[in-house]
Amino acid sequence: xxxxxxxxxxxxxxxxxxxxxxxxxxxxxxxxxxxxxxxxxxxxxxxxxxxxxxxxxxxxxxxxxxxxxxxxxxxxxxxxxxxxxxxxxx
Length: 90
Known about the structure:
mainly beta, 6 strands, 6-stranded antiparallel sheet, 0% helix
């Protein structure tokens, strides 16, 4: 007889991530949970910083262009590592 093991279910993320179908000029934020903690220092934006999604790079599918509040344009980051900020939080 097999012993039942209880797996602790992790709550599913309710975050809606950026895809190729996401409209430009959407407010997004980087999901630091998607990268290793030791790699956080390599990203030029803060944990709760809001960015403006400008679109997908045509010749680099899955990579996007983003702008921060100061107008600095950041490009070639994987779009699936950014989530759309809900309207209630903007």
